[in-house]
Design brief:
Blueprint (H helix, E strand, L loop, with lengths): L5 H14 L6 E12 L5 E6 L4 E6 L1 H4 L10 E12 L4 E14 L1 H15 L17 E6 L4 H13 L4 E6 L7 H13 L6 E6 L13 H9 L4 E5 L7 H5 L2 E2 L3 H8 L3 H36 L2 H46 L2 H6 L4 E4 L2 E2 L11 E5 L4 E5 L11
Helix pairs in contact: 4-8, 5-6
Length: 402
């Protein structure tokens, strides 16, 4: 079997493609992705539909005013031919004419989703959290192999090497990346040890960045309890997560600058705060000393003596009033005490015995009525100077008429 060289195969492909008249002056409709303008004025882009895409070139000499209103994501109708680039072995579509059809399919989806999420309040400024002024730990959600992580580490080392970086590695492109991004956002967003989150990736086309327009990812960004900075793509790229984030950075480098305060700036801030505090304390001391001096100058000896004399008279008057009240209370209590003593003396058995009365007891119980004793009971009669023991010979009640 005879083998052909790569060059021979590519040249045969070029000959067949460019020699086929059916592949010339093709009218094709598609959406623009990855639109770039070279310094020479040429435009490079991909034209895609729901299933396929092809690289396209619009050379400066053909552009004219046709690209003035065209932007990333727009749907366009292009007329041109296929071309094979020998050195790279790639097929491109060379645009001769271009007609804008307005917003493309992806862009339409993006605008509709943006409008719906905005209506729910996910982009409202009222929900934005403030970035802490002096963070200690920063969570970074990005690819562990990309240049973004390197740039963030570089900025962190330059500005503040004392801040810890906690990496949450995630894929940053494709539909399969969505669940991993959401899971990482939930995990990092609920980590109370983190002070700030950075969600970042490098530049790319609308299709490359599409996972950051996914509704699940946008909601996960909105739900983070930790303040989050997003830096998706280049400065001109804006995804839906940028609207839901607390702060949107133009680039990953800018995000790192926002998250990592400079040690020099912190030292200057602390010095300024100490200076302001010192000045305020000094002003307070000066004001207080001036008040004391004014008070001392306003006091006159004559007025001071008058005030003391008046206060002395007031105190003496209060003492006299208190003395009178105490004397009145004493007399009142003395009378009450004498009344109680009289009542006690009237009931004193000794005083009654001195008058010829005796206290009769039977079985150590005071006898008040004859019904409480019987004939033959032994009675004790208590007199003033002793006790009489006697036996009941008889009991004679008084007549009721007596």
């Amino acid at each position: 079997m005879e083998c052909e060289s790569v060059t021979a195969v590519v040249r045969r492909l070029k000959h067949n493609v460019e020699g086929d008249y059916t592949l010339r002056n093709i009218a094709m409709v598609g959406n623009i992705l990855g639109l770039q303008r070279a310094s020479a004025g040429h435009y490079y882009m991909s034209l895609h539909d729901e299933q396929c895409s092809i690289r396209a070139i619009f050379f400066r000499g053909r552009v004219g005013a046709m690209m003035d209103a065209v932007k990333e994501g727009d749907q366009v109708v292009v007329v041109g031919s296929l071309n094979v680039y020998e050195k790279g072995g790639s097929v491109s579509f060379i645009i001769e004419r271009l007609f804008s059809q307005g917003i493309g399919t992806l862009q339409q989806q993006l605008e509709a989703r943006k409008k719906a999420l905005a209506a729910e309040g996910l982009f409202d400024e009222a929900h934005k959290k403030m970035l802490p002024r002096f963070p200690w730990r920063v969570g970074v959600l990005t690819s562990k192999t990309g240049a973004v992580l390197h740039d963030i580490h570089k900025i962190a080392a330059e500005r503040n090497p004392y801040i810890d970086i906690c990496l949450y590695p995630i894929p940053v492109q494709g539909e399969a990346a969505i669940p991993e991004i959401v899971q990482a956002l939930h995990e990092a967003g609920n980590n109370e040890r983190l002070d700030i989150l950075i969600l970042a990736r490098g530049g790319g086309s609308l299709e490359d960045l599409w996972c950051f327009n996914d509704e699940q990812v946008v909601r996960a960004v909105f739900q983070t309890k930790v303040p989050i900075i997003t830096a998706i793509g280049h400065e001109t790229d804006t995804t839906l997560v940028d609207y839901a984030a607390d702060v949107r950075a133009a680039t990953p480098t800018h995000a790192a600058e926002l998250a990592f305060p400079s040690i020099t700036d912190i030292e200057m801030t602390i010095a300024q705060m100490m200076d302001v505090a010192t000045k305020r304390i000094q002003v307070y001391i000066d004001d207080y000393m001036h008040k004391v001096e004014r008070t001392l100058l306003s006091v006159r000896p004559e007025q001071y003596k008058t005030v003391l004399s008046l206060r002395q008279e007031q105190v003496e008057a209060q003492l006299r009033l208190m003395t009178q009240r105490l004397a009145y209370i004493y007399e009142q209590k003395q009378g009450q005490l004498e009344t109680l003593m009289a009542r006690l003396n009237g009931d004193n058995p000794a005083r009654l015995a001195a008058k010829g009365y005796g206290q009769v007891c039977c079985r150590r119980q005071r006898v008040k009525r004859i019904a409480e004793v019987s004939v033959g009971d032994l009675l004790d009669i208590q007199l003033v100077d002793g006790q009489i023991q006697t036996v009941v010979k008889g009991v004679k009640p008084y007549d009721k008429g007596q």
